[in-house]
Amino acid sequence: MVQAAERLENQTTLNLRVENKILSYVSLNHSSFNQPLDIDKMVFTSGGIFIINYNEAKGMIDGSQDRPIWLSEGDVRIKNPLIENEKKIDSLKMVIPPYFHDYFYSIVGFKKRVKINVPGNHKNIEGNQWMLSESEISEYIERVILKKNVQQNQPIKPHHLNILERGLRWMSQ
């Protein structure tokens, strides 16, 4: 059984020009999870399911994609947010039907101004994992949906999205 709790206070807004449903501050528990999953935002659109977690790091961030610990401001150790978000998505895939597995996107949002010293292009729209400033997130979600429409990839059917979103919302009560 999955249990979820949703907190609605202190929401960061996303101004999307595409149809979407958002669950904010979701905490999911399941017997197959090592620990509860805390997700800042789950955005459901016809082009994908975006798992967004915000990071409070500031200053210069040093790391690499496969290194589990990064440094912020020179000596503050933080868990690699890309790995942490992927772990959450992998856990979600254990309880969400396989139909949705190819539609997940990972976004790490930074609330403060940062300089990222991590090899790779973390703003590449062709990827499915991004590190973005809080102000860039809506634009990237819309770009992914536009790209899918141009490529004519089959979007998620609206009624499937509604069922998934309602199911997670129901579990939060």
TrEMBL record:
It holds the Pfam family NERD. It comes from the Bacteria. This is NERD domain-containing protein. InterPro entries: NERD (IPR011528). Residues 1-115 form the NERD domain. The lineage of its organism: Bacteria, Bacillati, Bacillota, Bacilli, Bacillales.
